[in-house]
Amino acid sequence: xxxxxxxxxxxxxxxxxxxxxxxxxxxxxxxxxxxxxxxxxxxxxxxxxxxxxxxxxxxxxxxxxxxxxxxxxx
Length: 74
Known about the structure:
alpha+beta
């Protein structure tokens, strides 16, 4: 598994919206920053239903999940 950072202004539900990133920089508002996922074979994350559920939980609670980082307010 690897971290993939969401590109600015992109749709977090689309694999092509991410790029591989060893250390995601998560500054900005409390939205999806990065996901930890298997590579789908195209240097993009495999957005499984389980991962999407973690993304929803992180957004609803404002608390990062094991495989989802949110943008911090700092």
